[in-house]
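Format notes (please read before filing issues)

Several people have asked whether sequences and structure tokens are stored in separate files. They are not. Every record keeps both together, in the order shown below: the sequence lines, then the token lines. Line labels are part of the format and must not be stripped during preprocessing.
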Amino acid sequence: MKSRDKTVIDKFILFALSKLNQWNLYRVKKYNISTVDNPNNYEVLLPNVDSDEKDYYSEPLKVALNTPNVNSIAITGPYGSGKSSFLESFKKKNAEWSYLPISLATFKNQEEETEDIEQENPNTSSNPTEDKSKFELHQDIERSILQQFFYRERDDDVQYSRFKKIHNIKKKLIWIHTLLVSFVVFYSFLIYRPEKFKKLFLLNPLELLDTNYHKYLTIVFVGITIFYLYKLFHYLQNIQISKFNFKKGEISLAKQDKASILNEHLDEILYFFEVTSYNIVFFEDIDRFDDTEIFIKLRELNNLINNSKQIDRRVVFVYAIRDNMFIDKERTKFFDFILPIIPYINPSNSEMKLLEKFKQEIKDKKIDETFLSQVSLYIDDMRLLLNIYNEYMVYKKNLDSDKLKHTHILALIICKNFYPLEFAKLHTREGIIYNLFANKSLYIKEKIEEYNENKKKIIEHIEHIKNEELNSLEELRSLYIGEFIKLSGNTYFKLENYNRGREYKINQLTFDEIFEICTNNQEAYTYQKYDNSNY
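Then the structure lines:
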């Protein structure tokens, strides 16, 4: 008995803890707060909602949003510049607008897919146009946008949409519908087939109809019938029929335009914005496909939404794209307002960010500060920097040993973030990095042999110089002439105090008289001739 009571108490405690955890997660999500104990200062890679504290970017964006007829806005900046962080910060500070975020971060463009295939299997050649055509890629992008429009909403909010989601139906609700339908069938038998009802249920229908509850049952019967007829018409309303043949009993569903998913379901999109309150749509990661055609389709969609009489408000599309998405003046023609985002981190200031993040490791003399300064030149993304720190702390905790240098662990983590495929191959003793360390002795041997070969050549050259002999005075003077030309670059000279400044060629230094005068500290003016001109 005591064991049973203990089991019940344990189950109750687990249930209570589970509910408390769910409530805490809900509170964290709703109010964006966290009370997690974080002594090692781990940081998530999500956008920073407090990135624009001084409203340097929020102010111009609010001006654009409050300006009539500004319906297409571009937030531009290189990858990792903080566009997503700014958008999250703007949403947090400006709750007067209703925002709809659309992100295509899960998609890969054709070039990225091909690169991944080539990295995994270098011997396999792949043509991206063979795997997925441009048309199919556009279909996937548009389908994803449409899904994110509708599948974030509850069915009750878009109840007349033809897009239906699978949702959980409780057993209690199924029993209720079963009882209601059974009542309608039972009562219909009672009213319209009293003889069969009497034979089937062995009850006199006249006695049942003469009771005081007959009128109330009739009201319930009519109410239930109307309810299910409403459900039936609601279902039929979502089916588009192009042909109905009474003689042959054929029903053909309407065919849609498959050229564009957005065009095909344009009526659904207009209905969506009619029944919802969104007035700002944020598009992220569309620029990764290097295709401006999808932007043209979205601009056309935006124009249709804003010109629709059934939507009584302005809807603004805001695109977070990189600077070089549009060429030359093309982007100024496409967008009504462009807001540039200056990168929060770049190779020139990443050293400061790294030193700040690893200050405790530097203080404990676990990480070499010079090493951080050197690698900072290659880090230009804040999320990359934070992930390097997070992974370093995890590896350091698990691999803490006196034999391991923490700077070496950090170097390995940096390599992991820049070359994840090569790092993964280390576990199977493959890849460039593994071969580099496995063949270390061979590389050292080759370098030593190369060094010894160069050393031998230098020694032979020195010996040759030492053994070199001049056979005459003219050869010695020619050696002087050669060095003279090397130093001055000129082939003519004049002696100021000899023979009235007569011009001599450099090869005349082999003459005894001229050479003697030059070696006696005689001042000489050297020059070169180009087209009979002196320089």
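For reference, the curators noted about this record: Residues 2-31 form the longest helix (30 residues). The radius of gyration is 42 Å.
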